[in-house]
Structure formats: structure tokens, C-alpha cells
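Entry:
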Amino acid sequence: MNRKKTQHRLSKWLLGVVLVIASIYTPIAGDQAAAAEQSYKGLETGINQVITSQRMRGTKSSVVVREADSNKVVYQYRADQGVTPASNVKVLTATTALEVLGEDFTFKTDVLTNGTVKNGVLNGNLYLRGTGDPTLMEKDLQRLAKEIRQSGIKSITGHIVADDTWFDTKRLSPGIYKSDESHYYAAQISALTLSPNEDYDAGTTIVQAKPTKNGKPAAVTLTPHTNIVKVVNRTRTVPKGKPNTVSMTRQYGTNTIVVSGNVPVNSNGKRQWVTVSNPSAYTADVFMRALTKQGISLSKSAKVTRAKTPANAQLLATDESMSLYYLMMPFMKLSNNAHAEILAKSMGRAIYNEGSWDAGLRVIRETMRKEGIDTKGIYLEDASGMSHRNKIPSEKISEVLFVAQTKPWYTAFERSLPVAGMNDRLLGGTLRNRLTSPLVKGNVHAKTGSLNHTDALSGYVKTKSGEELIFSILTEGAKTTARPDIDKMVQVMAAQ
């Protein structure tokens, strides 16, 4: 049994927490927000100026600011209004996963057989059974194949069977558009899936096109290589200095990836993550290749199939993922959609023995209610935030952020949030190029959110006076982007 260890460990922040039962809300006067106390008058004035600016006209917003130690609301603007939260949904998903599954939770991938072994020959099928591990990589499959070879198996007469029945067969959430399906952020969700590198974009392969000789097609490779993907190479190598026009798209409903365009000589070409249709077959195919690399021969009729592992199957090898404590880093720092959806289905499986979106989202809502958070006004179609139909009021997200501070797993959650202005990808994450001024750099830990005409930011900010505030800013319907306006609001908070 192997346990993966993350290569990036960051310093932990320990925050003192005082749980106060009663929350104090400030009434809203029309479209204007009010401050809870006179001491926050500057905060009220500053945020109101941003919200009523020309740039924000026509934008639907929901904003709330709380004191982190007392939970007292010190500013609110339409705090109970449901707004599309984009990836701020992940705040709910992450905290619920830590609460329900626990920070020591791991995924297991097993290799089993119901056949018999005689003289090094396995007479029967080899089953690869997954439970949703988004960090499974080709090297892990190679290690499993090596264990099979070391057990004495030299050849297999049966098939390589992908068992993805831990989750249901619904691969895409309702918020995924047809035009999204080949992009890494819209990968199909399966209990048996594979990541091409340590960004852990499960269900994708890395397609790379490199120049060759002028006038010749580019050299196109897949990482990891898989036989279930067909590459149509329509590229051409062009002279140095010419525009790079390479595009890579998987044809809808197929596993055919079309690579086209011009690749200039002496250029880096292009590298892109492209989703694979049927991640289960993809993973099993790469495993089959790993077996042959270990010198295990397969029958000529051997193929990748899909079925549930028989109850009497014997366990041959197991791979165990990193714990949720460490998975939280790439999940939240890089805002990984597949991780969110896999965790939702994992929670549904753990609580209701049903690895589905319906069961997982039910767990999220019920866990919030157990913490005393009213879920009225919350509508979720997925756990990642891809759907424009998701609606959450900012007050609900801020309540979750407050409750999180009281939990034993809070360190795992807090360290997973992107840190403003910090260049390292697994420190700054999606905030590494934002809020870079001395006032806010390193002082904001928050989850970003972005869809077309939708921007959000929710988290914690340390003020100039040393106080910590919890905030949630949700916007939709902006003409371009509300990101600069959101950052201005956070700077106003930090200046207190």
C-alpha cells in the first residue's frame, strides 16, 4: 500500500477563535448598505462608493462583512440576495468534505481478480476498481503493474476491466455547456480517472505540438499516451517568426482530438490539457500499457471493458492517495472543478451509499443546517460552481466561513485558500496576480470565483489595525468584469 505525499507544504496559520452564538445584523435601507457601528463608517462609505460607481451599474451584487472573532455583521448590501457564486461554491464543498469525510480521508484504487493463477498465468480478468482518486497518475498505475508482476503473474488470459461503479454513470453536471466539454475545467467525472501531472486535472491528457522541419507536420504527443484517443494532426511547421496558430479540440461526443494550425520553427509549439471522453476506459487503457511494460503478456483478444468487480474477487494490489488535508491545496488554490465534483459524489457515497450529485449536494445542505445555517435561498446544481443557475446569498457563505474557524480541521481549510499577491502557485493560487499592494499582499486569504460576467471573492482579510474580517462579495451581470471593483472593496476593508 502506498501513500502519495504532496511536494508542496506551506506554513500553517493558527488563529484564535471565539464562538459567539448570537449574530447581529444591520438592516438595509433600500439599495444602500449600512454599517453596524460608527467605527466602520469609512468601510461603509468606501464600499458604497464602489457599488454605486459607473462601472458597477447594472451589476447584481450581494456583499457582507463580519468581524471574524464576534461574527458581528459590520456591513451588508443585499446580503440575503441569491447571486451566482461561481467557484465560491467550493467554500461549501471544501468545508463540508472536511467535516463529513475528515482531513485524513483518502481514495483507494484496487487491482483484483476472480481468476486463478497457475505457473504464472492468470486465467481470468484483471479488475481495476476506483473510488474517485483525482490524483491517480500513470506512475501509480506502473507501480501497481509492478506489484502484479512481482506477485508472480507473467501473463493474463482475460480482459482488463474498469470498475467505476463507486459513482453513478452521470459524467457531466447540468452546468456544462457543449462548448466546454473539451476544456480541462469541464472534465467528465468518474470513480476511475487519471491525471496527467501533479496539477491533478483528472480526466484530461496533455496534448503537445512541437515544430519539426519547415513545411512538415508538427510532432504531436499525448501525456500519458493512450490508445483510446485518436489524434488528427492537421498542423504545419512554418518559418521562425511566423504566428503560432495551433488549436486543439476534442470533437464533441468522441475521443478524437483535432490539432491544427501553424507551428513556427524554434518555438515551444503548444501544450494544452484536453478532456478525455470516458475516463474509466482511459485509465484502464493506460494500466494495460503499464502491464505490458512490466513484461506481463496479454492475450490477443484482451481488451478494456467495464463491469463491477465480482464479490469473490481477490485483492492483488492497492494504491492509496494523499489525504484530503493535502488534496485541499491543489483543489482550492487552483480551483479544480473535478476535485469539487468528485468530493461531492464521495460525500454522497459515504453518507447515503450513492455516489451522485443529488446525494452529495444533499449532504452539503444538511451539513450547513446542522451548523445552524439556514439554507433558504441556496440553489445548487453542482459542487464546483460551473453552473450559472447556482444561487447563494453572500450572508450564507460568510456564515460558513465563520463556523469553519471553530472546527479542528480549520487549518487544513485556511491554508488551502489562495493568498493575495503571493507568486508561488500553491501559495497565491488564483490570487497570485491580484491584490498585490503592500496593504493587502499576504493579508487576504480568499476563494475566487469567475464565470462569464460573474465574479466573486470570499474569505478573510486582516485590517491595518490588526483585526480580522470575514467577507463575501458576489457579483453577476457586469458589462465586462467586476474583479477590479471587488479588489477595491477588499482594499477598503484592509484599510480599517
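The longest strand covers residues 230-238.
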